[in-house]
Amino acid sequence: MKDPSQVALLGLDHTELTLLVKGLGEPGYRAKQLGDAVYRQRLELLDEISTLPQPFRFKLAEKDIRIGLPKIENRFVSQDGTVRYLIGFADGQSVETVWMPEGDGGEAGDGSEAGDGSEAGTEELLAEQNGRGYRQGQNPGRSTICISSQVGCAVDCQFCLTALLGVKRNLTAGEIVGQVCAVLKDQNVSPPEDRINLVFMGMGEPFLNYDNFIKAARLLVEEVGIAERRMTVSTAGIVPRIHDFGKEKIRPKLAISLNAPNDELRARIMPLNKKWNLEMLISAAREYPLRTREWVTFEYVLLGGVNDAPENAKEVADLLRGLRCKVNLIALNPGPGIDFTTPEAERVAAFQNVLRDAGTATFVRRPRGRDIYAACGQLKRTVEIATSPAL
Ligand code: SAH
Description:
Elements: E1 7-8, H1 14-23, H2 29-40, H3 54-62, E2 65-66, E3 71-77, E4 83-88, E5 94-100, H4 122-129, E6 143-146, E7 150-152, E8 167-170, H5 173-187, E9 196-200, H6 210-224, E10 231-235, H7 239-246, E11 253-257, H8 263-269, H9 278-287, E12 296-302, H10 310-320, E13 325-331, H11 345-357, E14 361-364, H12 381-387
Parallel strand pairs: 1-2, 6-9, 9-10, 10-11, 11-12, 12-13, 13-14
Antiparallel strand pairs: 3-4, 4-5, 5-6, 7-8
Helix pairs in contact: 1-2, 5-6, 7-9, 10-11
Bound molecules: S-adenosyl-L-homocysteine (SAH).
């Protein structure tokens, strides 16, 4: 285990890197060299940074400064190509991060057009023009990385496996960005040439680790080169932070885990509804300053016989009327200790139809990586094993 008192370069923005290099008596342009090495080349060791003179590399090492790329401790590959990574940090804690090779058609995606080419930007065109080869079976530009924001989660949603862990700690901005860097390196892909979508939908509640999450989002845009419109953050409904988030200059798209059509039901399956009820949540969504061609996404986990009746769909439609939004339906992904059932496909389709008939754009998320516990709400298993004391 590395000494956690060491300073990691990963997580520092350009201004902080500049301060660091100047503090060590080096010219300002070394900040750019460090940024390139950490965020774009995604190197692991100071010694690999060939652009730096050796005395400077020594100086960094002497000060206990390291790159801080987290370590991939394990990989689980699903039949559908999804990879669930166990990623470990300097203090021995770990999280799960998921790679979905054909993009956000999977349920961890935001259901937007982000992966279908309708927002085709110059980067895709360039990649095509340059004849960049993609590995077989990989759909260019449709890959999604689902990243974690905390070790465990404090929100306690009754249908989610991560909740059973409780919250162990927040991730630093560097650890959030580090998950992306580690997976990009492992998959041998590089934005912006490779079109990568990111969803902050892994373990944890990003809006309960707001400052680190938002700093990570900025670093991902400014340093790693992933466009804002390719990122979506999902919140269980931390209302004050939704208001703050709307004021950010750089911000991913917003998704809200709705999961129930009324307060009674929502409080039962998401205890946080007692603090921030549906009226507060929906008015925050109505006040949210949407950009051009942007809408709010609502996720709705369907729990058999609990919140999946056609009447519930009607209630959801009424609740969301007039909001520029869309709904992503997710049939429950089961797990040990989760006391709900997965509704039949027909029941899901019926729910979708009610919403569609009411004029709400509604999609059903295809489960991804269920066989390896990589799907929504299933991130827990290996973290628990990895962090439990040795027998
Ligand atoms: N804490 C944030 C980020 C996690 S996103 C949030 O709650 O939004 C994970 C998504 O998966 C959420 O929309 C959540 O409602 C959903 N989810 C949780 N457990 C699930 C399960 N067992 N099956 C399907 N979806 C689940």
